[in-house]
């Protein structure tokens, strides 16, 4: 499986890259059919006038490609590690739902 990690308005540090690979690796270790994953990390530079600080400005997005389906999730937080955690939680829920749907719907058989 291929994981592509990109940064927009920030550099990807080895610690962030390791955190992503660890969390996504654990998340999809039971799925053999994952073709590829793209993770985009960005930082929005808007500043709140009252607090003089950006709120929820670290954004993490991911696309997981399975045969016949693409899953997308986005999360934002004040810290990049928190946004990555929220992102993996969202994707875990999507993958769990996908697995349940695969178990319910029997595969088509050509006769």
UniProtKB/TrEMBL annotation:
State one molecular function term (GO): ribosomal small subunit binding
Q: Which GO terms describe its biological process?
A: negative regulation of translational elongation
Q: Which InterPro entries match?
A: HPF/YfiA_ribosome-assoc, RHF-like, RHF/RaiA
Report keywords, A-Z.
Answer: Ribonucleoprotein, Ribosomal protein, Translation regulation
One Gene Ontology cellular component: cytosolic small ribosomal subunit
Subunit structure as annotated in this protein's UniProt entry: Associates exclusively with 100S ribosomes, which are dimers of 70S ribosomes.
Q: Which family does it belong to?
A: Belongs to the HPF/YfiA ribosome-associated protein family. Short HPF subfamily.
Designated name of the protein:
Ribosome hibernation promoting factor
Q: Which organism is it from?
A: Acinetobacter albensis
């Amino acid at each position: 499986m291929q994981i592509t990690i990109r940064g927009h308005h920030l550099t990807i540090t080895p610690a962030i890259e390791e955190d992503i690979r660890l969390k996504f690796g654990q998340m999809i270790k039971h799925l053999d059919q994952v073709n590829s994953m793209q993770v985009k990390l960005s930082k929005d530079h808007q500043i709140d006038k009252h607090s003089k600080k950006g709120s929820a400005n670290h954004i993490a997005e991911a696309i997981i490609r399975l045969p016949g389906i693409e899953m997308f999730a986005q999360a934002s937080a004040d810290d990049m590690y928190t946004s990555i955690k929220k992102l993996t939680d969202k994707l875990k829920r999507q993958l769990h739902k996908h697995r349940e749907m695969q178990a319910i719907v029997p595969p088509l058989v050509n006769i």
